[in-house]
Write a structure and sequence with these properties.
Layout (H helix, E strand, L loop, with lengths): L19 H14 L4 H14 L5 H16 L4 H17 L3 H14 L7 H16 L3 H18 L2 H17 L3 H17 L3 H17 L3 H18 L2 H18 L3 H18 L2 H17 L3 H18 L2 H18 L2 H18 L2 H18 L2 H94 L1
Helix pairs in contact: 1-2, 2-3, 2-4, 3-4, 4-5, 4-6, 5-6, 6-7, 6-8, 7-8, 8-9, 8-10, 9-10, 10-11, 10-12, 11-12, 12-13, 12-14, 13-14, 14-15, 15-16, 16-17, 16-18, 17-18, 18-19
Length: 472
Amino acid sequence: MKRLSNILVFLSLASFVFGQDETRVIDSLESVMANQEGRKKVETMMELSKAFFDYSFDECVDWGEKAIMEATQFQDVELLAKAYWRMGIRYLEHYEFDLALDNFNKASELLKDKDDTDLLMRVLNTKGRVELFMGEMDSALITYQQALRVSENIGDELNCADVINNMAYIYYQQDDMDKSLEYFKEARKRFEMVHDTLSTAQCDNNISNIYVERQQIDEALSLLRKAIPIFEYYGDEASLAHAYQNLGTAYASGLIKYDSALFYLQKSIECAENVGDQITLIEDELELAGVMRQLNREGDAISLYQSALHSSEAMGYTIGMLEAYKNLGIHYNIAGDFTTSAVYLRRCMDLATEKNYQLYANIARPYLIADYARLGQLMEMKKELGLLVDNYEGIVIENNALDEELTKLREHTEGLLNQNDSQNNQIQTLQSQRNHYRMAFYGLLCLCLAAAVLYIAYKIVRKNRKKCEMMK
């Protein structure tokens, strides 16, 4: 499980300098706002909310709410939608995903009849990111499909490429690697068309992730070695963090070089810390924990899993929680602590079911059944076995349907083969008839030639006879 670069990165916004410079900006905005009315005043309130973000989040929220209240007084749908959107961004940056999504939903609802606006495109972009963070993959896919339509309507090719890139990530999380690879390559082609070198390199990093999953390590390393110098040139530490994480995973799972894996994962952590990327830090901890397990350093692995779980729960990062629950549950199951294992695996199952992450549920269920069996919780065990039976029956029904289709195909194929045999027999008959006609033709031709030769000989003999008679 890894997040792909240029997908789940928060909006990169320059923060104000703390202290005196920060106060000057705020004082300046408040001074300007004192002489403003109407829509300009609302815009300044939004800027004040942004300025207070690093100084006082309570003040940040207060000014954002004031901007919304002020905008409500005007019959300007776009202004009110913008106020909700800007407030949502502040919550997003503060890792309060529920509140961020609520504001983005209000903004998109206000703009639902305006499919040709740049603001709607931006709202849908950020709404999709929050849904990805929260693990709402189906909702995120719908949101990005809307964003793609809007981007195409207004002719924003760069955003089209970015949205396709994000959709590829969704298919990646849904374990549809073929479709994910198709969309990443399409995004890469579009980024190249608009000469966006950095985003093209980020797509290479994303594609390398799929190659690592498929154990195509040489192809993955080739793409990463091209992408990393570009990230270094642009000073993009967020993308460097993702690339180093992919390198670490490639060395750990593909090349089984744990020293190299630890080296690159540590570099990923350093880059992520420099840009304050909490999601990448969580994923680095999860990857490091996997390496520690391979090195039989179980204590270190558990500490890393628990740290990642605590951070994921604090910010509502669904995939981080699922990974931590799953791995902790499996660890305690193998260690023989079935009570603790059942707690973690049950949480994994419940969250996976809620968010429709069937892959995690399928991995956790067999271990959870084993835990219930060891603990003597037969009712719970039967319940989980019943779900397996339901799944099995569904698979059997699907398999029977496929068998019927296969039988029909075989019958059709046999019919075609029989038809082909019949046609071959007809062809052979026609060829035999042709050979007979050909022999008859050649025979007749030979007779004609013989007759011609005899006629010429007769003419010559007759001519010679006349000459002889004249000489006498």
